[in-house]
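Obj: model holo form, ligand = magnesium ion.
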Amino acid sequence: MKLDLPQVIGHRGAALAAPENTLESFREAHRQGARWVEFDVGLTADDQILVMHDDTLDRTTNGKGPAHAQTLAALKQLDAGFWFGKQFTGIKLPTLAETVALLAELDMMCNVEIKGSSRNAETTKAVMTELRRTWPADKPKPLVSSFEIECLRGAQAEAPEFPRGYLIGGRPLDWLAQARSIAAATINIDNDHATQPWMAELKQPGYGVLVWTVNAPERAARLIEWGADGVFTDAPGAVLARLAKGV
Ligand code: G3P
Ligand code: MG
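Output (holo structure tokens):
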């Protein structure tokens, strides 16, 4: 099934309205009208797949220190909602399987971002195996992205049927060679460098272009006008409302 890219992808769910990378954040993105969410994954000490952005627990949980040095059972004891707002107290860190199950229930698509670490190969193998096991067979495959070319190569080797998104910051000189080497479907670029000429250069060989992270609705409209296929945003509802007016 061809990858049908959306104009709006809820970044870490709907990170301005709910604690990022939690099931509640994905539900909130759905409530705001998003069809896709992006989230970040890494391995726990006991090789389970945790949905979380940071390397450490301090910012988004009531825990402390390195997140991925803990077992899933220990991580499940933590509160991943209180830091964001009292009404989110008691929310747990989700696993990839729990997230996929919710997205199936909500009929949503996703971009799974594999975070770089000292365990890139194991992480990628585990993530792709889990996606193959859990992703509904009747839905298009989700986009798997990473800043780490090693993870993208691993994803291609392990489960080539999942489209790959090459995440870049700035304008690396070797971007086209790298994108070709992993048969990328999309190039996911940063908003600060997203100019009209850069977008044209990326689109020319036929890549989908997604821009992170765009919270200003007017900026999102401009990027779409320049040819971006979509944007990652912490405020999917506001961006959708702006795009509904046309670009
Ligand atoms: O995948 C887009 C964006 O999430 C990349 O940066 O740090 O928010 O994961 P980060
Ligand atoms: Mg991310």
